[in-house]
Design goal:
4 helices; 112 residues
Length: 112
């Protein structure tokens, strides 16, 4: 993935045909090691192809996996024959006003 990400960033940056050396240099600037075999396979597979067409083909393959979640699970079914237990709503505590504090100690008559 790191090779693909670097390749795509180089394309977005204006390099129409990033080479293995370009990708290696880009990843090297952030301290990422490159797997030369994997990178060379990627460059060979993408050589001469329009990146937009490659992305569209990949999007079609990803559609097979489905998208998004399936929604939340249903709630538990009520037990048969048992009386429903009502839950009491928790009581809210009253929030009083915070005491007024003089941050500069002016209440004692002193002068800073």
């Amino acid at each position: 993935m790191k090779h693909v990400a670097a390749y795509l960033m180089l394309k977005l940056g204006g390099n129409d045909s990033p080479s293995a050396a370009d990708v290696t240099a880009a990843l090297g600037t952030v301290g990422v090691e490159v797997d030369s075999d994997s990178l060379n396979r990627l460059i060979a597979e993408l050589e001469g192809k329009d990146i937009n067409e490659v992305l569209e083909a990949g999007k079609g393959m990803l559609a097979k996996f489905g998208g998004g979640g399936g929604g939340g699970g249903g709630g538990g079914a009520a037990g048969g024959g048992e009386a429903a237990v009502e839950e009491e709503a928790p009581e809210e505590e009253e929030v009083g006003e915070a005491p007024v504090v003089d941050m500069f100690g002016g209440g004692d008559g002193g002068d800073y």
